[in-house]
Specification:
The chain is 25% helix and 23% strand. The chain is built from 34 helices and 47 strands. The strands form ten sheets. Strands 9, 11, 14, 16, 17, 18, 19 and 20 form an eight-stranded mixed sheet that branches. Strands 26, 27, 28, 29, 30 and 31 form a six-stranded mixed sheet that branches. A six-stranded mixed sheet has the order 33-34-32-37-35-36. Strand 29 and strand 30 form a beta hairpin. Keywords: Coiled coil, Hydrolase, Protease, Thiol protease, Ubl conjugation pathway. Its EC number is 3.4.19.12. Residues 384-406, 883-893 have a biased composition (Polar residues).
């Protein structure tokens, strides 16, 4: 027997080995599956390596297991891995092997996983277990994030199922959605909902719509919420309607509050709303108790007491205080409420660390609690139902013993907490059994807090009175739990760690307990549906209908295809974009009608001249058309309802006399441009459909039919990418081999010219296409009163040879135009002083520039210039002045330094601009920051604008990288030979007048310019000179971005390569900066005004200029533009950093040597009251302000000039100007931005008065530069005592004053926002009963 069994075992093993050997020899098939049902998974691939004998049925099962979809809810189609062309479905129920079905061993077999019958695949759900799932259901802590294991088996799947959100929990209860941080609200609402007495009483209240807005009625919104919690089929419902009735906005959802605080505030609000109704005393009847608050002297025995009411009883977790007492203070409970609320005081304040803390100590509580032992014997006569009368009434009496202090104490030996189960009857006065049974309470709600004192999460454990089952209500999740889970909320740690056990304890513990009195005569049951009042029945029906309507709407949304729709408007010729929403069962014909109306084409084209085609917007490619499928549902055409599609739809239009072209899958679209070498023009595109396997010869025949050009002499050029023009000269090559893709652009030329025989890169065709590829269309806005308007007419007449009309285009201005001598002369006269400040090096450059000018003149002599004749007609005086200017200013047409200009600033004119322009504008917006220092958060530049004079005294000369000479982007317009770099190679330029759209500036002249974007900005400006009417050095070019933001283009040697078609350019008159010049904003400093910073004007400062010279330049501008008639010694210039005044610039300081000047530079101009006191770099100027505490006011600012950084000298100066004795002077440094405003209610205690330092340049003062604010006071002066009314009035005034100035009202840390419920729904009115 043994041997026969052994032999059979060996036979079976041999059979298995032979099968394995056969399987090893069997060929394998590699399947690569692409999930196209979701945009997130379309780029992912699933790979299966299967034996060739695998049945197709098994293939589907393996794919379903691999991707996590239910088998039978998807389809597999053949694909080539890149596109879906030519895909055919695979039979899922076939028993064919994958080898017989066409799969190839040893090769990659690409499959596409798609929707089935227009519905997305169903995500596979794991089967619910028994023991494991039961353990998960009892999970009551904070739930994991989405995508991880939750408390119910609906959340096991990695993908979030939409249907599981809508389905009701298997417990039968509905959760509440957490708006953001409203878990505390959800816990309380679920507890109230699970309280039969409260829910029944709420249902009996009837809302009168005529008396109140339903959205603002708190009881009505609670009614609606409770009805939804009882009848909704959803897993969770929103609480936004309830919080809206509280008068809360969305910001309140981000404020976490205490659940006990919310309970009190909400009960007060309900009492206010229920006045004059049957529910007026509901809160008191259910939750209010009565107690005696007493104080008894331990020596004489005298006792004073009063009667109080309460809604909850706070229980101390860890008692603090002295062990020695002279009086007995305590509470005696006279009456316990029907619903007893116990608050465990887990939040306390640690005076060692000065922070709030949470006590996680262990605190046990029984399921049943006998409260009869806590009733005072002397006060048994007080009926339990008696309501409190005067809570403040005092009386006298005696007490036998103080039970409360013993009962509610912390026994360190027992779990380090309070155990109410350990009540010993022997230690207390026995009472009648009937009384005890009447005060027996059962626990039904535990509100749990998880986290710290800084924040955390609330959820509720509630026992249902219907089945005595405990449930965890954790926001939208509801699950069953056990009594063991309740014990886990006691808190504490497993082992004994002494006093510091709280630090090692769990942060998830009970915070609020609610007990209900066990009294069969009062214990209510939830109302049944037939017992509902009539108004609740109507409300249930209404909410049910709304939910059904919402469900139907969701179903419609779930079956609605949403896809991008494009349409080229037939008359406006602009591409329009919209979103097409169409039900999956609508036919293609109906979808065309919807798209037709959506694109508003009723007046442009008939409906029968429109159709929908599959479109790829990224490649501008028409994938296919849908001939003969007008009655096909859109769900089938689009491949089902999806969140996103890999393609778009185009609403194609035609003229009535045209016929739609058929677009077949697999074709490529080619836009054919016909080139005419004689006219040097490129025609608009003609669309041609071709196949990738066609040869170039066949493709030429196709183009010949479309364009009527002979194929024999045809040259075809393919533009594969930018500036890549490929001549298709191999007739036998296929289009795919030549690099054709979905959408292509080709240029064709077919003529008998000799250009065909020239090398392609030297041919006229290549040059024309190269120019065409690099030509862009720009819209140029000329100045509103451009002096070149008449000049331009003359230019057109001279260059065109015909009577020039202003509207006729002036094409190809080939040379730099001559300068407008008279304008330049005026300009140079106004800037003669600036030029005289140039360094000797600049003068030497001027001598060299003289020869370059003459070379320039000879080079331009033979170039046709429209301004030559105008220049020849200029007066001899102007020509002489022009020559003089060229000698004295060789850099007139050289590079421009970046200005500080933003939009408005560049509209404003500098002092030089104002000599030739009469208008000036304000300045205050963005600036061009191609190479400018980056602004930091505190308003400072990324490098120091001006080095501290204190530190500069010990430093060598500091080089700056912000000057024009060192800026690589400000090279000269001319090369070494003097010839314009823009003319070194001919660049295409063509312009014509253009009428701008409405709203683009009425009366403003526009040019539409076609220009080669390889042209430099310098040459581009020279081409614009005839239209602007001034030399290129006297106007500025601004590029207009989105939202009409303008940035100045100043790098003359850079090309226009960053520009693109239809970009807008604005030309503004004004002299461009030369090398070493900077445009500077000048602000007036008004230290004692509400707004201390006032913009005055723009000025131009030059490198090498002294401060005094710049002040001299400012004097006439201040007089003419600002009305300030000053002398040079009556004002100073100083550094400006944001709004803070800084270093005082001395008259002998030189820009770029002593003062680092930069683009985007700003300075303060300060008018002096007397003679300038600042004479040396070693001095220090601070702004002092006296604080008078006895009068609660601040004096005006006074400047104090110190000879050193000594604190003693500062006090002496302050004593000198104030009359305060030196020994009584106290000072503090101001905080924040100038003028360092602070509330007068806070200045006396909030500032760091009288720092213990001897010098000002050390911590905590760090006063190293001019402009620091110093507050000082007389330390013997007492602070004024204010009444509450005076303080409140002063607080309002200070708050209003500081808010107007934009300064902070207080420097105190942010206070926690108080919880309020607004009874009228308006948060701006404080009617909260808190």
């Amino acid at each position: 027997m043994f041997w026969s069994c052994r032999q059979s075992i060996f036979a079976e093993m041999k059979k298995k080995f032979s099968q394995a050997e056969c399987a090893a020899e069997e060929p394998r098939v590699l399947c690569i599956i692409q999930d196209t049902t979701n945009a997130k998974t379309v780029n992912e691939r699933v790979t299966l390596n299967l034996p060739a004998s695998t049945p197709l049925r098994q293939l589907f099962q393996d794919v379903a297991a691999k991707v996590g979809y239910e088998n039978g809810s998807f389809e597999l189609l053949w694909g080539n891995g890149d596109s879906a062309t030519g895909m055919t479905p695979i039979d899922q129920n076939s028993d064919k092997t994958i080898l017989d079905a066409g799969f190839e061993p040893g090769k990659k077999n690409f499959l596409h996983l798609t929707d089935k019958d227009g519905e997305q695949p169903h995500v596979m759900q794991e089967e619910a277990g028994t023991a494991e799932d039961g353990a998960q259901e009892r999970f009551i802590g904070p739930l994991p994030r989405e995508g991880s294991m939750g408390c119910t088996n609906d959340y096991v799947s990695q993908s979030y199922s939409y249907s599981s959100v809508l389905s009701k929990s298997e417990t039968g209860y509905v959760g509440l959605v957490n708006q953001a941080m409203t878990c505390y609200l959800n816990s309380l609402l679920q507890t109230l909902f699970m309280t039969p007495e409260f829910r029944n009483a709420l249902y009996k209240w009837e809302f009168e719509e005529s008396e109140e807005d339903p959205e603002r009625s708190i009881p009505y919104q609670l009614q609606r919420l409770f009805v939804l919690l009882q009848t909704s089929k959803k897993r969770a419902i929103e609480t936004t309607d309830v919080t809206r009735s509280f008068g809360w906005d969305s910001s309140e959802a981000w404020q976490q509050h205490d659940v006990q605080e919310l309970c009190r505030v909400m009960f007060d609000a309900l009492e206010q709303k229920w006045k004059q109704t049957e529910q007026a005393d509901l809160i008191n009847q259910l939750y209010q108790g009565k107690l005696k608050d007493y104080v008894r002297c331990l020596e004489c025995g005298y006792e004073g007491w009063r009667i109080d009411t309460y809604l909850d009883i706070p229980l101390v977790i860890r008692p603090y205080g002295s062990s020695q007492a002279f009086a007995s203070v305590g509470l005696r409970f006279l009456h316990f409420p029907y619903l007893l609320t116990l608050q465990l005081k887990r939040f306390d304040f640690d005076y060692t660390t000065m922070h709030r803390i949470k006590l996680n100590d262990r605190m046990t509580f029984p399921e049943e609690l006998d409260m009869s032992v806590f009733i005072d014997v002397e006060d048994e006569k007080s009926p339990q139902t008696e309501s409190c009368t005067d809570s403040g009434a005092e009386n006298e009496g005696s007490c036998h013993s103080d039970q409360m202090s013993n009962d509610f104490s912390n026994d360190d030996g027992v779990d380090e907490g309070i155990c109410l189960e350990s009540n010993s009857a022997a230690e207390r006065i026995s009472k009648a059994g009937s009384e005890k049974s009447s005060l027996l309470y059962e626990l039904f709600s535990v509100m749990v807090h998880s986290g710290s004192a800084a924040g955390g999460h609330y959820y509720a454990c509630i026992k249902s009175f219907s089945d005595d089952q405990w449930y965890s209500f954790n926001d939208q999740h509801v699950s069953k739990i056990t009594q063991e889970d309740i014990k886990k909320t006691y808190g504490g740690s497993s082992g004994s760690r002494g006093y510091y056990s709280s630090a090692f304890a769990s942060s998830t513990n009970a915070y609020m307990l609610i007990y209900r009195l066990k009294d069969p005569t009062r214990n209510a049951k939830f109302l049944e549906a037939h017992e509902y009042p009539e108004h609740i029945k109507q409300l249930v029906q209404k909410e049910r209908e709304l939910e059904e309507q919402e469900k139907r709407q969701r179903e419609i949304e779930r079956n609605t295809c949403k896809i991008k729709l494009f349409c080229m408007h037939p008359t406006k010729q602009i591409m329009m974009e919209n979103k097409l929403e169409v039900h999956k069962d609508r036919t293609l014909k109906e979808a065309v009608e919807i798209a037709y109306k959506l694109m508003d084409l009723e007046e442009a084209v008939p409906l029968d001249c429109c159709r929908l085609v599959k479109y790829d917007e990224f490649h501008d490619y028409l994938e296919r058309s849908y001939e003969g499928e007008e009655e096909t549902p859109m769900g089938l055409l689009l491949g089902g309802v999806k969140s996103t599609y890999m393609f778009d739809l185009l609403l194609e239009t035609r003229r009535p006399d045209q016929v739609f072209q058929c677009y077949k899958p697999g074709e490529v679209m080619v836009k054919v441009h016909v080139v005419d070498l004689k006219t040097e023009s490129v025609a608009p595109p003609i669309s041609v459909r071709a196949y990738l396997n066609q040869t170039v010869s066949e493709f030429k025949q196709l183009i010949s039919k479309a364009t009527q050009l002979p194929a024999e002499t045809m040259r075809v050029v393919l533009e594969r990418c930018y500036n890549d023009l490929r001549l298709l000269n191999v007739s036998s090559k296929t289009l795919k081999a030549e690099g054709f893709f979905r959408s292509n652009k080709v240029f064709v030329e077919s003529s008998e010219s000799l250009d065909r025989h020239v090398v392609y890169t030297d041919s006229q065709l290549w040059k024309l296409l190269d120019r065409h590829a690099n030509t862009i269309r720009l819209y140029v806005a000329l100045p509103e009163q451009a002096p070149g308007s008449q000049l331009r007419r003359a230019l057109c007449q001279k260059s065109g040879g015909a009577a020039g009309n202003l509207e006729e285009p002036c094409e190809r201005v080939k040379g730099p135009v001559g300068n407008m001598k008279s304008v330049e002369a005026i300009l140079e006269e106004s800037t003669e002083k600036l030029k005289s400040l140039s360094l000797q090096q600049q003068q030497q450059e001027g001598d060299n520039g003289d020869s370059s000018k003459s070379t320039e003149a000879s080079d331009f002599e033979n170039i046709e210039s429209p301004l030559n004749e105008i220049d020849s007609s200029a007066s001899a005086e102007n020509r002489e002045l022009d020559n003089q200017i060229q000698v004295s200013d060789p850099e007139n047409l050289q590079s421009e330094e970046r200005s500080d200009s933003d939009v408005n600033n560049d509209r404003s004119t500098s002092s030089v601009d104002s000599d030739i322009l009469s208008s000036s504008h304000s300045s205050d917006t963005l600036c061009n920051v191609d190479n400018a220092p980056l602004p930091l958060a505190n308003g400072l530049d990324s490098h120091s604008i001006t080095s501290s004079r204190r530190s500069k005294a010990n430093q060598g000369k500091k080089e700056t990288w912000d000057t024009a000479e060192e800026d690589s982007g400000t090279d000269s317009e001319y090369d070494e030979s003097g010839k314009s770099r823009g003319e070194a190679q001919y660049m295409y330029f063509k312009s014509e007048p253009y009428t701008a759209e409405e709203g683009s500036g009425e009366g403003q002249k526009w040019l539409m310019v076609h220009v080669d974007k390889r042209i430099t900005l310098s040459a581009f400006k020279q081409h614009l000179e005839p239209f602007v009417g001034v030399p290129s050095s006297h106007f500025k070019v601004f590029r207009v971005y989105a939202s009409n933001q303008e940035f100045e283009s100043v790098r003359l040697n850079e090309t226009l390569s960053s520009f693109s078609d239809d970009n807008k350019i604005t030309i503004r008159l004004g002299r461009a900066l030369k090398k070493g010049e900077y445009r500077v904003k000048v602000y007036q400093l008004l230290v004692n005004e509400p707004e201390p910073c006032k913009f005055l004007l723009d000025a131009v400062f030059a490198k090498g200029m002294t401060v005094r010279q710049s002040k001299e330049e400012l004097l006439p501008q201040l007089r003419e533009q600002c009305g300030l008639d000053l002398t040079i010694d009556r004002f100073r210039l100083r550094k400006k950093t944001w709004k803070n005044p800084g270093t005082v610039f001395l008259d002998y300081h030189i820009y770029e040597e002593d003062i680092n000047i930069s683009s985007n530079w700003e300075v303060f101009l300060e008018i002096l009251d007397g003679v300038e006191k600042m004479k040396s770099m070693s001095q220090l100027a601070v702004l002092s302000r006296r604080w008078r505490p006895s009068e609660m006011k601040l004096d005006s600012f006074q400047e104090v000039v110190l000879e050193s950084s000594s604190v003693e000298e500062l006090k002496e100066k302050l004593s000198e100007i104030s009359g305060i004795p030196l020994e009584n002077i106290e000072f503090a440094k101001g905080r924040g931005t100038f003028p360092c405003d602070i509330s007068i209610l806070e200045i006396h205690q909030d500032l760091d008065w009288n720092p213990k330092v001897s010098t000002l340049n050390v911590w905590p003062l760090y006063i190293c530069d001019d402009g620091a604010v110093i507050f000082y006071r007389d330390k013997t002066e007492e602070l004024m005592e204010l009444t509450d009314e005076q303080r409140n009035e002063l607080m309002k005034k200070e708050s209003s004053r500081l808010q107007k100035t934009g300064h902070r009202v207080t420097y105190s840390p942010r206070k926690e926002k108080a919880l309020k419920i607004y009874l009228d729904g308006a948060p701006n009115k404080d009617l909260t009963q808190d």
